[in-house]
# Entry
Amino acid sequence: MQKTIDPWGSGLVEDYVKLIKDFGLEEFDKAGFPDPNRLMRRHVVFSGRDLGLISMCIKEKKPYYVLSGIMPSAERLHFGNKMVIEQVKYFQEHNAKTYVLVADLEAASTRGITLEEAQKRAKEFHIPAWIALGLNPKKTIFYFQSQNKDVMHLAYKFAKKITLNEFRAIYGQADPSRIFAALTQAGDILYPQLEERMPGIIPVGVDQDPHLRLTRDIVSRSKSEKFFAPSSIYHKFTPSLNGAIKMSKSSPDSCIELPEDLASVKKKIMRAFTGGRATLEEHRRLGAEVEKCMVFELLKQHLVEDDKELDKIYHEYKSGKMTSGEIKQLCYEKMEKFLNNFVKNIEKARKEVDKLRFVKFG
Amino acid sequence: MQKTIDPWGSGLVEDYVKLIKDFGLEEFDKAGFPDPNRLMRRHVVFSGRDLGLISMCIKEKKPYYVLSGIMPSAERLHFGNKMVIEQVKYFQEHNAKTYVLVADLEAASTRGITLEEAQKRAKEFHIPAWIALGLNPKKTIFYFQSQNKDVMHLAYKFAKKITLNEFRAIYGQADPSRIFAALTQAGDILYPQLEERMPGIIPVGVDQDPHLRLTRDIVSRSKSEKFFAPSSIYHKFTPSLNGAIKMSKSSPDSCIELPEDLASVKKKIMRAFTGGRATLEEHRRLGAEVEKCMVFELLKQHLVEDDKELDKIYHEYKSGKMTSGEIKQLCYEKMEKFLNNFVKNIEKARKEVDKLRFVKFG
# Structure
């Protein structure tokens, strides 16, 4: 039986190396990418598909695109979204034509909000938040799924390219609403190539790989359109503060939202699973188990930009010189600064939203 | 196991009475409908769903709509289309707001033609042909499926209202492309109610009942939108000239197309299955088996408007006074006149197409 990853569920992925093997992913090699960002340098970005094609486009300055989507039903962002945005930013800064779509159709279907409400939330919160996290709005093409007839036409057309059993093999299930959502997403992924045929890259959490497999299968069966199969680049999950592999809203204590009020953030960090030992004496003698420490992971993945600074924290903690209380305090201080900045930048970005380049459809 | 009718296939329906019973249809009672048309008077229209609601709208002059669709991939029409158009015409003349959509998305998906080609064919042939067969274009709202975002949004939304197993129970299968086509069709059927909530009627061949069952199920699960469940009105198939229950393009000799060249039509009628006896002597003595005669069926369903004239033919043939050769000749003469008229009227209608009221979508 073929294994499946469920991009909609909260299934845990226990072994990234195994994932690479089971799903035929490539290992990410930062050597292919000039000026790798924090996530690339620190093995948070760990695999992908057809990465060489994008690496070539960057190095030879050939046209390519990066695409990502906003799910506007969510009330807030989380650190997984932050990673996606940072990846989009990386490619945007390396000459990718940048598309960000608002999945208002999917939000309306899965969350029961109206399209208008979904669009309003995207404009009032999500798009400003993306800008606050580094997206350059002047170099980004935005669109609403529900207004992009080409995307809906592609979805309808692609339905002919896949059987129910193939769909089930990829997703583990095949409800009509899942079929609509997945094929519309395939339409989104390939839509930029209707304007200009070129390679494209989709940065996502590895749990989204099924959408890429579906889209790549569709491309291989759409000989007449001659789409480039989309490349993808995968990051690991932001680990849950309680030590689970993925932050999850269904377990709120495990997860810091963006934004979230500071008292609540402080409480969560202070309760987080660390690499500390049972007693202070033992901690000083043996040093922390840094690899198990969720607080260090947060610092590494999100809060410390400078490699040398991170290295110093690592060694002080590893050697037992820094205690778990101290690393939590450090983490909270950095988080406080980051969140305050984020909220301030959202406010600023909100004022620019009406000036953005939304695609107009005839 | 639940029975299914396959609206895409050519499965034969052997017993209309059984159909009514198995699928819980209503028997059509012409008493509810003022000035019943030829198809209604002659039991060609035989059943439907929620007919009383429409009958009431007609009698009390309440708003309601009639909707039908054009499949523009077809090169020509056939007599089944002609019946649908005559039914649409009946309701149009009885105050129904009239919608005719061009299923360009479905045509592109199932026939592999482009949307542009589908739209071109609709404008150059199908819409003029519908007008030639009696549709009043000035009182009709036309739209292309691919340009109607509301319809595509409804389809996406409706996907949430039906499970894969329910879909399979209705259609006997559940390929992704079928799911898209069926849910888009449900979107078409209910779209007029986004503009004005009111009852609506869909005249179709009984093989299309699954689409109505699907749409009615969706309505019953969409409490918040408060759609009226669509009514439907079903006609029998135009029988095949070789005696099969349904004219079918896969058996070209059984089927007269609209238009078709007269030499070919003549050949087909002359070869048709009649109610004639083995010898002329026997025919004169026993009379024709009118109920088995496909030529009489054509006259009854399509070519003789006047009930008295049809009655006369019936009795002359039944009594053996009219031979099978004679009824074939009569049928051909009427067909020739009808086809010549049809071609002439298409030419005339073609000139009006650019003036029609196509819905513009923002």
Summary: The domain at 252-347 of chain A is CATH 1.10.240.10 (Tyrosyl-Transfer RNA Synthetase). Residues 7-13 of chain A have pLDDT under 50 and may be disordered. The beta strands of chain A are 26-27, 45-49, 65-70, 77-78, 97-102, 140-144, 200-205, 231-235, 257-258.
